[in-house]
Amino acid sequence: MRSEDLRYLVDVLRYQFGEEVAEVLSKALHESTVWRSPSTERIRNVYLNGKLLLVLRAQDNLFSLTPLSGELLAASLPWPKLRVVVREDVAKFIAEGRDVFCRHVVEVDRSLRGGDEAVAVSETGKLLAVGRMNVSGEEVRSYKRGVALSVRRGYAR
Q: Which SUPFAM superfamilies match (predicted)?
């Protein structure tokens, strides 16, 4: 990867997730390759050892998490940073790709805001899915209805 690409990607990570997450993912970026859009030549996907690590969205130029990046973050960040913890009885459905409802959330990173990327985990810490928050971490605990996390990809294997 070119040094200017690496610098750009780390800057986007810092802006979107903060210094701690940028530090964790920047280690993986050193060994990554990028895929550029053929028409615009802008970076769209970042691959680590042939697996999709991050997707750079065209509409807002921010990252979408993938299962691989979710695994790296969950293994490296302190509890409950970037996590939405769900009840064990619904964990199977979340892992299959179903959305996380507010009433099923046991614990959540209160610094998350609506639109932020997050990782859904079970109460035992098992990775279930990655997705985008619909409401803030503070609101999740006070709401009894509605979707807390729109799941993009489940970890069911």
A: Pre-PUA domain, PUA domain-like
